[in-house]
Amino acid sequence: MPSFDEVLKEAGEFGRFQKRVFFLLSQTGITFSSLFASVVFLGRAPDNFWCRIPGAAELSDRCGWTLEEERNFTVLPLHLGNESVSGECERLDVTWDTSASCSRPLTRHGNHSTGNLPLTPCHDSWVYEQPHSSIVSEYDLVCGNAWMLDLSQAILNLGFLVGAFILGYAADRYGRILIYLLSCLGVGICGIIAAFSPNFTVFLIFRFLQGMFGKGTWMTCYVIVTEIVGSDQRIVGIVIQIFFTLGIIILPGIAYLIPTWQGIQLAISLPNFLFLLYYWVVPESPRWLLTRKKGEKALKIMRNIAKHNGKFLSPHYSEITISNEEVSNPSFLDLVRTPQMRRNTLILMYAWFTSALIYQGLVMRLGIIGGNLYLDFFISGAVELPAAFLIIVTIDRVGRRLPFAMSNIVASIACLITAFLPDDIPWLKTTVATLGRLSITIAFEVVYLVNSELYPTTLRNFGVSLCSSLCDLGGIIAPFLLFRLAAIWLELPLIIFSILAVVCGLLVLLLPETKGISLPETLEDVEQL
Prior knowledge:
By secondary structure, this protein is mostly helical.
């Protein structure tokens, strides 16, 4: 009886069938990255808003004021009294009624000058020139409520974290393609509900669920792709990252063409329903079927793969050999039970955490959102494209471990140099910081590939999901770490990033090299790497 890898070589390791599945599943990267970065456009700060004085709406209707006229009567008196008061978070502590003058509504408040009129904080009476342009204007996430916008992104990352555990476990127990399709359905439904949420609490609930299902789509599509190709073709795990970057590049174009946040939310959510059509064209992972003692189904899929690739499997094949390892439901203890697995797991968890923390920190550090938001965001995505190409041309020549380590070390050096470069040469400081971001992007993409290659089939999806959950934890911590340390010394976050990256670079040298090695099927295979 042949082994799975022997049958895969005979059926074609990266033929027409695998290329089609790869292309179809790669589209998931575009929708997932759009969800990941969507807060930039969903949460755009409103261009012009002010706090409405009680009774102003009724008086405006009686007097026939335009919004601009109402704003002049509301905000200009504040400027006259105190130029530092913008009228966005404070208002005059007065109440207008229908008896007020349409031309001079403040005259009835006595002989006080406008500068002496009392002020009061604004709580829920904001007026926006574009009330539905973002969730900020939709749910009043301004002034004292501004922290809620950060909460919405933290909730999304929390959804990623929960999805990594729950759906990673489910994909190893119930199948890759089933969980992928259910996750796509969940992302689409939750995205629609979030777009029409009546209040911010409902929005947060479905933002969390969309993040959870979104992580399910991304992790399972990645595992399926790496499990149906040969060991020499697993570079597709890096190529699929290009589609993630394409989503980053496409997102500002979508936001530019669609003026409302609901439209943007629907545009990044609805395509997930199209992925449900994959039920008829993307099969279950035959590697997973073998681990669940479903050899006949696996062999049937392999014959179909061979047919589409123009190959032919021997009719004498009646069964594909699998390990004698008992199939059990995966748990965290399985990832740390043996010495090699324990070392791999701990190092990979740290690598995921560090990559996410530094990546997001450097993005915020570069200050790419400002000026022309759409152009700056596009450029920030384009910076990531060379990362995948650099990996593609090096990883099959020198292996995984060296580029993994060097990218972290270069990122560390770039962060350290940037911290001590003088501010009077901003172009050099930006260039070195960009080099740091390119390097950590390479590390981020390599860890995906290495993670999937260091776990046996029975634990692969669960292992990748669990380790990558530290990425979501890093994403939650990054903004707090950056801003708190920057308040002490502007360059202090870069010093911390540098230390984290160099430690990661040294640790990954302890991982086994997986270049050209078949995916491990059992714990024993991992221990022998």
